Amino acid sequence: MYHVNRMTSKLIEDLNLQQQEAVQLTKGPLLIIAGPGSGKTRVITHRIAYLIRVCGVPPRNIAVVTFTNKAANELKERLHSMLGQDSIGITASTFHSLCARILRHHGSKIGLENTFTIYDDSDQITTIKRSMKELGVDPKHIAPRAIQSAISNAKSQLIETSGFKCESYFDEVVLRVFHRYEELLTLGSGVDFDDLLLKTYSLFKNIPSVAHEYQDRFTYLMIDEFQDTNIAQYEISKQLSDKHHNLCVVGDPDQSIYSWRNADIRNILTFQRDNPDTKVISLEENYRSTQTILDAAQHIISSNKKRIKKSLWTNNGIGYPITIGEGYNENEEADIVLKTIQTLKQKRSILTGQRYTLNDIAIMYRVNAQSRALEDVCLKYSIPYQLIGGIKFYQRQEIRDIIGFLRIVLNPDDDAALSRVINVPARGIGKKTVTGLVQLSMELNLSMFSVIELIDHDSSSEIDAMSHTIKIPNLRSSRSLKTFVEMIKTIQVEADSLNLAKLITIILDRTGYKTYILGDPDRGLERWENIQEFINSTESYLDNSSINTLSEFLESIALVNDIDNLQNQKDTITLITLHQAKGLEFPIVFIIGMEEGLLPHARSMDKESELEEERRLAYVGITRAKERLYLMRAFRRGFRGGSEPSIPSRYLSEIPDNLIDKPSQSSVTRFASTEDTELFNNPSETAGSLNRSSKHRSHTDKHTFAHSVESPELSFRTGDKVIHNAFGEGLVINCVPSGGDFELTVAFKVDHGIKRLLLSLAPIRKVK
DNA sequence: CGCAAGTACCTTTTT
DNA sequence: GGTACTTGCG
Fold it and tell me: What is the pLDDT of residues A576-627, one digit of tens each?
């Protein structure tokens, strides 16, 4: 008993009261509302430690489901350092990985091959396009993406074709495509992301013995980021906890940012309704951010009308004011960010007293495309960066091709993969042949691979007889097809006794892919290096050389995002989308593109609910910052090649003045009056948010932020109108000290663009 | 059939 | 600005 108490107190001594309660309430349904920076992960790890060390629960009976694999891995690491050997056996994974594993074991009971292929986003689109083509649905009339999203929406609510309700013409089209899409998936033993959940749900529902097995396996279940779960995930957690009812869900409605992926925030309410004995604990002390940052975040989020009020507080100091920065366009914006980073490198953290490192810094943005300007400038300033997301490694053509071959080796019926690589490199199987093949496969209800096999041993005339309307590939094409199938079969036979690296090497060789890649004089070498890197990534699968390894490997590729593989080793800044930043924290955060149309995004401006989700996204971004926060915007932003004026985000005006350090007065107005009268076409935001004076500036911190330089000896300031002897009229958009001199950045009218000038040398004078 | 050049549409966010 | 798909020629 003494031992237990001592263990207990050791585990919870450094937790606050709410956290302690959350750790110790192990039985029955528990809802933890965890504000940003409230020590949520600590609660989860300590709770698990408590279950194991104090309650004596065997590790293998505990499961935590997280939102990303990265979160799962971090959790595992932390548990390992806390519990050592005792952490082995704990399940920590995403819903999708967990379901994939369950289906590999038991999928056959609901008619799923255990070699099933997971179709990623682009495979889905390919398959949907194919379905549409077969059904004569014009992709110009109805976007494949729209259909995909409708299907996904249905599936994530556990609605299959049979239960799909049509309320419009569009729905009817969707349903027809949905039917064919499902047939094609079944034919190719493929499952999409939603199927992983849906099929696990039906497995549990239809085969109770399997459900019982997992109910007794995971007697304690925790779900993280519960606000971002969808109906299917909710129902699966219900199924899993239906026997022991020890289900703990952790989330924060204010950080719900995935409704577009069918996450349903109502799950939190449903959870309480379904489990009337739910205990609710709120974690409201923030350990992460300064008072200023937390205040700003709270002011923004409190503009949301549909919201359960909660008030976070912190014992942390006031810290620095939030800096609002403005650039002329996205390049200027990026330039200012990087310049600021260079000065920040000399500064010290409030918390640790240490110099900041690049790892302390993140630049966040709404859309991936925004990273481009940043990357350019990082290169220019030689600042190493880590780009999270964006063009993912596995999305590269050459990598996808090899994955395609691997998928066919594992599952030859995988039509999506087959179509991709059947003629790569060119082997005489052109568009016409493939079309014929697809038609045959439709007619015979066989996978493309099986059809080729048929052509192969029957003479082609027999198939002709079976389906005389179909044009049989000519002899030359048949030979090419046959050769291809034989090649795959040979590789398949060998695959069983090879490790992955060897298998890939053989594929590269036999398929002629190596020659094909290296034959490209422009990008050949680069692509070959990517392939080498890909081969290296199979290293951890070396020891086990069976076909199961291949299946595991492909699964991890399909489910594991790039973000999961990145290491924090090198000293680099982080470029990341706001969505991906969820759950992370950095001492210094820049959020760029604080503009109407970007944050909130133009596509989210029609509906109030979407504007509120965008606001939550801003909230998530801001609450990532521990010490310093910079909110950036540009006056003009590149858009599909061109460039358009933009106005400040409405969310900026929701931050009280006294928390903000602003760029010098009314630069926007001047900018607007000289160049972009269109800025005033939208009257609501401009005046309110940017022209407010900085009179409430209460912080004493000396900022070196480019736009905030206000030295008395400086005769030019941001926003000043100038005349240059050669370039004519322009506007000062930046002014920084530079070796006893000042460097002005001036935007001149149309022909001359942005110029950097040294004050002492430039033939320049102020106007008015 | 293969390749080069041209066009339409585009991405908001990701397991 | 870039890609994915189409067209047209050799």
Answer: 999 999 999 999 999 999 999 999 998 888 889 999 999 999 999 999 999 9
Strand order through the sheet with A62-66? A91-94, A62-66, A220-223, A247-251, A30-34, A279-283
Q: How far is the CA of A132 from the C1' of C3 (A)?
A: 21
Give the residue among A650, A584, A579 at the shortest CA–CA distance from A623: A584
Q: How many Å apart are A627 CA and B12 C1'?
A: 28
Is the CB of residue A147 less than 8 Å from the CB of residue A177? yes
Question: 3-class SS at A696?
Answer: coil
Calpha distance A587→A320 (Å, rounded) = 12
Pick from A593, A689, A674: nearest CA to A638 = A593
Helices A2-12 and A17-24 pack at an angle, to 10 degrees, of: 130
Quick check: A129 CB within 7 A of strand C? yes
Residues packed against strand B, CB within 7 Å: A 67-69, 94-97, 120-121, 140, 143, 145, 193, 257, 260-261, 366-369, 389, 423, 426-433, 477, 559, 561, 563, 577, 579-580, 601-604, 610, 640-641
Q: How far is residue A562's CA from residue A565's CA, in Å, rounded to a whole number?
A: 5
The order of strands in the sheet holding A660-661 is A385-387, A573-577, A361-365, A586-591, A625-634, A322-327, A660-661
Task: Show which positions of strand B are touched by protein (CB under 7 A).
Answer: 1-3, 8-15
* Angstrom distance (rounded) from CA A23 to CA A54: 11
Look at residues A596, A646, A574, A640 and name the one whose alpha carbon lies nearest to residue A329: A646
Alpha-carbon gap, residue A746 to A625, rounded angstroms: 32
Distance of C1' in C2 from CA in A126, Å = 20
User: What 8-state DSSP symbol labels residue A276?
Assistant: T
pLDDT digits (tens, 9 = 90+) for A352-401: 899 999 999 999 999 988 988 898 899 888 898 888 876 667 778 888 89
Q: Are A72 and A92 in contact (CB under 8 A)?
A: yes
CA neighbor of A76 nearest in space, from A61, A86, A66, A87: A87
